[in-house]
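Objective 1.3, modelling of assemblies. Example input:
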Amino acid sequence: MATEHWEHLEHGADIGIRGYGATPAEAFRQAALALTALITEPGKIRLRESVQIEREAPDLEFLLLDWINALVYEMATRRLLFGRYAVEIADGRLTATAEGEPVDIERHRPAVEVKGATLTALQVVETAPGQWLAQCIVDV
Amino acid sequence: MELAQLERISDCAWRIPSKNGMRVPAIIFANQALVEDMDDKVAEQISNVARLPGIVGAAYAMPDAHWGYGFPIGGVAAFDPEQGGVISAGGVGFDISCGVRTLHTGLQSGELRTVQELLADALEYAIPAGVGSTGRLRLSKREMDEMLLGGAQWAVQSDFGMAEDLDYIEELGCMADAEPGQVSEQAKQRQRDELGTLGSGNHYLEVQRVVEIFDEPTAKAFGLALDQVEVSIHCGSRGLGHQIGTEFLRSMALQAKGFGIDLPDRELACAPIRSELGQRYLGAMRAAINCSFANRQVITHLTRQAFHEVLPQARLTLLFDVSHNTCKVERHLVDGEERELYVHRKGATRAFGPGHPSLPAEYRAVGQPVLIGGTMGTASYVLAGTEEGMRIALGSACHGAGRAMSRHQATRTWRGQQVTEELAAKGISIRSPSWRGVAEEAPGAYKDVAAVAEASEAAGLARRVARLEPLICIKG
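Predicted structure (tokens):
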């Protein structure tokens, strides 16, 4: 399994997620792990169910917004937490799998409910050849 | 915040003059210490708001203002549709109509002494809180639409509460012109089993004690007296509001160029009030306001049941119910002329002054109750709207203490268990599904709510009526 390469960003009222990777898809995957880590430790989540996600957007930044919002929606409506992600991006289209299990309050001790991804600090950029960063602030 | 960029207009008001495309000035209401502590982002964000089309008067920041997205939290701005005014999904926020409802219990704090822990357990059991919690209600498609049209009125008709509750809710518990048809199936799906849940983050239900009265006649009109026990509920429109915010923020950001709006920050995404998108958002947002009314009404019902089990003599009646994240059509005097404006309040409370026709009869002489949420360990305040506030800030006031520290910094500084134990030593019972959630919401992560309330009064926005301290806190 690839190494974890994500972090959280400071924001006055809320918090940001940032993923790094050699490709936009890898940076998106890492950003999703950062999202999970806001709620609970990703390692505590058993991989029992998987959800397919497909999204299309006019550019990579809106695609990141849609990706994170799709995960927020799937977590909220299915009461799931996700511990592993696989992401592919081709021609502005994202195809992904999120694996996880239903929220177990005793075991996961979920800290916050993410309401949605914001456009604040929303960025998908290649900071150096082969080094991508994908980030945004989420409302919690 | 750098004071050099501000012109001081009074002890508690500061102006950022129009520059860099600002159509109106920005005004920050706060004393010097609060302004100095404010993030520079507040000045940047409130100045950006002042650049939006059709803004009237000024863009205002309340004493608890802090760095938000697009609008600062604690931001107020009014737009005139006649002048190309806009409606902004970012200016309302994700948690549409998040607000505070305060209930009288008819109890004195002494009556709680022996049963405080029992009551805390009963409330924790009765009121679903935290991530992944679900309500006990499942609404059919038809019921969902009726709830989105009827708000708290629907809830009362469905036996969640009493008809007299409605008199003490803004809009009498039912926001007019809601359009459930503009609410996406996804938003409704997200709400399916969230009615009657608190949510997480800074949402809570507190049992409080009145510890100080600042204004005796107004306290009397509000039914507040020393040592009385009150309940305050802080929550919003849950998943439905979040999903509406998410969807319209995206649409508005993508379509802004088509409307010829030059956004200084994408998060200020907006659409002309007189556009199809603007009207669709207004219909959906109003449905979300009703969802928040219904949610707080159902939680009120659950709270009554929990109290009834432990303290059957309690009788829970509404003091008032205010919303923080809204855009409402209101009539205000602008340069001596009454105009119909679309007033955005993001993390700010409506604070109508005495005589306003929308107020319940017994409050009309003293002004609207303004319910200021505090932190778990400090205090909440009840303020009253003023004549002056109507004139200087479109009848608006602060909404809470306002964060002073990021969530990350808070979790590095405190541990939830330790916070809970320290509060227990002060006689405050905390119930929460998450230690980290408690640490993120530690009282020290917030500004001094007393200073915020004092500054609101000094600025003339609202006057202090009573201070309430927590006895029990159910954290989401």
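Residues 276-310 of chain B form the longest helix (35 residues).
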